[in-house]
Amino acid sequence: MPKTSSPALAAAPPLPATANPAAGTPAAAPRYGRRALRAFLRNPTAIAGLVLLALVMLGASLAPLFYPDDPLGMVGRPLLWPGRQWSHPLGTDSLGRDVAAGLMHGARISLLVGFAATCVGLSLGILVGAVAGYRGGWLDDALVRLIEIFQAVPSFILLVVLVAIAQPSVATIVGAIGIVTWPTIARLVRAEVRALRSKDFVVAARGMGYGHGRIILREILPNAMPPVIVTSSVMVASAILMEAALSFMGLGDPNTVSWGSMIGAGRELLRTAWYLTALPGLLIVVTVLALNLIGDGLNDALNPRLEKDS
Amino acid sequence: MTLLSVTDLHVHYPSQGASLRAVDGVSLDVAAGETVGLVGESGCGKSSLGRAVLRLGDRTSGRILFAGEDFGAAPEGRLRAFRRRLQMIFQDPYGSLNPRHSVGDILLAPLTVHGIGKREERRRRVHDMLDRVGLPRDAAHRFPHEFSGGQRQRIGIARALILEPELVVCDEPVSALDLSIQAQIINLLAAMKREMNLSLLFISHDLSVVRYVADRVLVMYLGRVVESGPHDRLWDHPQHPYTRALIDAVPDPARRRHASPLPGDLPSARNIPAGCRFHARCPIATDLCRSVDPPLRSVAPGHQTACHHAGH
After folding, report:
1. What is the ipTM of this complex?
2. Could you tell me the domains of chain A?
């Protein structure tokens, strides 16, 4: 540290430790996003999660190819065990519906609901969180109260009530899960935006005369995204679980097959035909695990505190 | 011609008990083309003042006139036109650049927002500005983290100057840099100032830095200006004991003067001492100083000080 400052000014701010010019060597360091992606792809658990999720997605996308007919149609002898009949490799349920067809078509619903509900929750949460964190004042107070009201209600009960009122369908389930999950994102985004709002580069943006929209969208939100991205991968997993739980209780979309409804239908035969619950249950576990592994990998890659020298 | 005129500016931060009076009645003028240095130890309110002047921080009261127009009272919708003419250079070259934007984007955005030029002309201006602050043109495609502290400060200067402002507030622009880099950045600022005929309000805790750039110096202590004057006169004939202590404390082998550090710390801005706010640390304080707050008064043309004992 250069010592031109005098003893009388010893109270002057200490130079930040980061003021070392060696910190930014002009060597071609890749931009932040690419570096994070590389760290993510070098993480074995993240790769495992990606592979598992890719397999589930593959199954979902191939469903219409393998089983072009309605998976709810009765196609064989009821309660056929897996491996007994070539045409129904994973057996049939008590109504003679093909389990493999149900699993593959169910994957479509689970993934659709998981990702769509997360999108709804993210949009609502980011909108409310960004406005509350950026504006501050009474609007912030009001929005924080709103978030707290939502978080004070047990989320699954709220979800059941919403779906029961709105009539179960894929769209209403997606909307209801989004409404139940947005407060988490809103809290997170609000905290990030509040912290970033007073950063020098945001003050500089105001000094340049940028509009509020530009400051929020281009200056603040891109820097607030890493924790949101991490959280949203776990949100997809919990949305899948919520949809499964709803379907298990008979509150799913009656016109589509889903893993939860398969478990619900098989639960009375748990002792005689356990494969009816075990197979969809296993797929739920695998999918949720895959998303959590991806979330962990994203956290390691995007969280600067854990960032190793790379 | 006076470009910026600030009258009786107050910045008080409300808190439990007494509010924190960061800036407590400061008036200052910056003439066109003039560099005014603002010195004082950290916590004296100089950064709060700098931000309040640009309406980037809180302001409790006070008038701000810019080029004769009432900038301080302008409604938010009319600020943008002023923003183009008033810019700021920040202390921290790391925190003041958005890590997600390339240098080209950082320099291009102000032009886009203010609708200056066509695409081609904007690009030309960005390249031109990179040349002028001594950065390679390919810097435009790189990101702030790829640069050193000094280079980042050049980016910050380029951003502040690309709109061709009239006044730039420099808030400790070199105190986060290595000594060797400090000189380069100060020289760059001085050169840009000459080239673009800028007015600068140069805030620093370091009198020896201000010495190189300022035409006129204001010394701030605990939210007030305690002495102001042309830089040479202030340096040679300091009237306020605080200014004297600051000057004595600058290492100078030629003078070989012994620096006697001021006793005590800066008092809290929540609890400002009665009388002269410097009396507790002042070597020549008398009973008068403990009871009566000295006003800023003229001791010579253009030279003012707030000390009862000045000129004796």
Report:
1. 0.89
2. 37-87+96-302 (1.10.3720.10)
